[in-house]
Amino acid sequence: MKVYPTESLRNVAVVGHQGSGKTSLCEAFLFATGATNRLGTIEQGNTVSDWDDEEKERNVSLNTSLIPVEIGDVKINLLDTPGFSDFQGDVKNAIRATDAVLIIVDAVSGVQVGTEMVWELARAEQIPILVNINKFDRENADFDRALSGLREAFADANFVPVVLPVGEEADFKGLVNLVTQQAYLGDGAERSELPAELQDAVEEARLNLIEVAAEADDALIEKYFEEETLSEDEIRSGMRLAAKDASSPVVPVFVTGATSNIGTIPLLEAIAAYVPSPEGRRILTQAEDSTDEDPILPTPLTDDGPLAAYVFKSINDRFVGNLTFLRVFSGHMAADQRYFNANREEEERFGNLYVMRGKEQIAMDRLCAGDIGVVTKLNDTFTNDTFSHRESLLQIRSPSFPDPLYIVALEPKTQADSTKMGSVLNSLCNSDPTLRWRYNADVRQTWLEGMGETHIQITLSRAQKLGVALDMNIPKVPYRETITEEAQATYRHKKQTGGAGQFGEVSLRVIPSEEEAFIYETNIFGGAISQQFLPSIEKGIRQVLPEGVIAGFPVVNVKAEVFDGKEHPVDSKDIAFQIAGRESFKIAFKSAAPVLLEPIMDLSITVPESLLGDVMGDLNTRRGRVQGIENDGNRSIVHAKVPLAEMLRYGTDLRSLSGGRGHYEMSFDHYEKVPAQLTDQIITLNLAEKNKV
Questions:
Q1: Is 598-678 in CATH node 3.30.70.240?
Q2: What is the pTM of this model?
């Protein structure tokens, strides 16, 4: 593949609901342009995009794949993204790395949950959007219904057909291009005369297209008023300008039947015509020496500009090591050079540069400004890092990623797995910004947090391929123990073994404390306990705090005050007062009306207004307390406080309850008392589990 200059590049994120045909469309692009000699299918597991074994097994995209295609003098870098909502982090970074978004809509199903999600992500990035109504060769495909669904779902945009289908369902033969007024049958490589039966529809739709294009520019609208028409180039230019309107964008609409390879070439030609070149991409940076709140990388972005290459994806491959996908926004990169990672402040040696086509690596000598490529075997570079000049430390601003919603507890299967677990999890989490892992000391478990069950399962499968086998369990809730009353106790530790004995007696009181997790004080008069043993008492008490008293959970919000005790001139020693302090604290704690505290989460749920009642009813069963409800168009946003114990598998439940149309965000808010009717049950279950161990 030759090196393409910036003005000949087009970068497009192919997004949409799961099953809308993104991968099949990319496969048709490859076949129609001669990059492949056969049209692969999802069912046969032989598509270029879905090359991973897990993707073939599940028949679904799980990774963003780079698919470059060449048409004329233009190279189009397509990023085929996953449609499943668990992998929205991949989608966000793919959109950040491109200059336009191609949303694929099923001609039968119309706008779906995933369509709404990617629309919001694309609008947030403020880059042009194109829509392709795919699967038009299927039974019940309906162009007008799909177009009406788009206009109803996204009323802030103006959806303008650029093509009209010729036939539908099994009789779908091709399409008519409203700009050229010619028919493109089959893949569209050859043009033919306009079908007579479509003359009126084409004339009406073309008039609408010209009016929309003219309204985007004063010079164009003046010409339209004078001549009542625009040239083909003027229509395309006007549409490009109209698509940049952030408040009410114009969205060109196309039609294909990907698996039949119908309409493929016209869509590629349209991408080359309507998607802007990378030179004018508006991209935010966070240069350390900048005082601007929203610094923009200076345009036009050229090979001679300051280096800014953004890592939007990294993959851990057991055979070739790390694969680092990067978009060169400004400047250029060459093979066999060293480049500076501004985030890590480390220099990396680039061996070969590649353009990936699925899993195929195509060696390149150079990547120009605007191009997308891959580097292998980098040591200190992760997703969201930026390569720039050492002097500037310029960094491309990464998208904001949602917090993980689904938690599992991990257990290594063998000692060897335990040894390697940390490094492998670090590597996987560095590659995926929506994935986190940590050791939760409160429950003594290793937690892995992701966007959903499928996300976690895929992560564990990848860990196994990297040589670490992990079992997945439901995480324990990190309860805490505290007291609600004041109490006191005395404990004498006396041990005689024939030689020197052990003796220590401690009297202390425990008092609820809201200010600090633990306070230790002494209030002893008359020298009942020597000064040297007071730290020993505290040491003994602190041994209890992480282990708990009533159920094995950490102790918090307690003040321990030692007010009396006794010692022996010979037998008193450090260990004796540690034991006495520990045991007297336990006795006093049990007498001070102990309770469990549970984490309460701040929850925000967004669902269609019609499902509000179902969601509210479900929250009531989860001990949720609704704090307020907002309306956002035809959606409702519910704000509530809910115990974490009731939310461990909420993502799966909400998806089932809402048909996948609901989503939520959750963060820790505070701890509060567990209801009395649940406390005994929690204590019994936890102690039984401890006894098993």
A1: yes
A2: 0.87
